[in-house]
Design a protein that fits this description.
about 300 residues; 14-stranded antiparallel beta sheet
């Protein structure tokens, strides 16, 4: 007879010590096997090696009013040198839950993790959804006691705190620089990418990276705007929606002073973006134009 089968919703994901209510997880260690084809007088592979261990993947779920500010800070705050994130942290995932002790196959810990990218998407009538891509330094299986929690902690009914999810009416983008306000926006999405890089060294005594460094920060996104609002009203005004010639624009770009999810202003010191040409399509339902943008200079 097979052993007990458990439901995944009784698991949990703990990021930097805080439980985040997720809808899915793909974080895993991967390790390539290198078995090259060689001239060797035989027709089977006779030489091989394991490659570096790369820990990574994503967690996704709705944005909560208490969890979102913590996660955004982890992904957007650089250290003093600028080439690395301020905080590395552990991610602990319990895949199933039972009241019995032990069970090394139920828990996994990903140590020294950093946020490679954090994406937010908001559509009118829905909650703000979040997808976070991580890179980690190490991973291991273990029992609950290895992770600093008691077996069952945070999964027994009644022990997880309730949290109010952030709905669309609490998310704002105000692009007053080119006349787009939240009142004419049907949806928006943004992605902050840290372009993390794993570093290895000769003589190290393991296959995990010795450091994780941050690359140039990138910020991209798009607005879904009800037609025929600002995008076409300003269609002949450069540089708001592209340019026909070099003289049409300057380096100052377009200011987006407010980009807010719940109570969190994503860029409290301001942001400068440039926008691509407006994309339009015919539809039987509400007509929506898409305006794509990219952060430059200040963000």
């Amino acid at each position: 007879m097979a052993g007990n089968i458990y439901m995944g919703y009784m698991g949990w994901a703990k990021i930097n010590g805080n439980i985040w209510k997720i809808s899915g997880s793909s974080i895993n260690p991967t390790q390539a096997i290198n078995a090259p084809q060689l001239i060797q007088g035989d027709y089977t592979k006779k030489a091989w090696n394991y490659g570096p261990v790369e820990v990574g993947g994503n967690l996704s779920g709705p944005s909560g009013e208490t969890s979102f500010p913590l996660l955004w800070a982890l992904g957007s705050t650089r250290g003093t040198t600028g080439d690395r994130l301020l905080t590395a942290f552990d991610i602990e995932i319990q895949y199933v839950h039972s009241q019995s002790a032990g069970g090394a196959d139920k828990y996994r810990k990903f140590a020294k993790c950093q946020i490679n990218s954090i994406g937010i998407s908001v559509t009118a009538g829905d909650v703000a959804n979040l997808t976070i891509d991580f890179l980690g330094g190490q991973s291991d299986w273990g029992v609950a006691s290895n992770f600093g929690v008691t077996t069952g902690a945070g999964t027994t009914a009644g022990t997880v705190a309730c949290e109010r999810l952030i709905t669309w009416d609490q998310c704002e983008v105000n692009g007053s620089g080119f006349g787009v306000t939240s009142s004419c926006i049907e949806s928006w999405d943004i992605t902050l990418n840290n372009n993390l890089t794993r570093a290895y060294s000769l003589g190290q005594n393991h296959y995990y990276p010795i450091q994780i460094l941050a690359g140039i920060k990138e910020f991209t996104g798009s607005l879904g705007v009800y037609a025929p609002n600002a995008p076409l009203a300003a269609r002949n005004t450069a540089p708001f929606f592209g340019a026909d010639k070099w003289a049409d624009y300057s380096a100052t770009g377009v200011q987006l002073p407010v980009f807010r999810v719940g109570a969190t202003n994503l860029f409290p010191t301001g942001i400068t973006v440039v926008t691509q040409r407006t994309e339009a399509s015919a539809a039987t339902g509400p007509s929506i134009y898409t305006v794509r943008f990219e952060g430059v200079c200040t963000y």
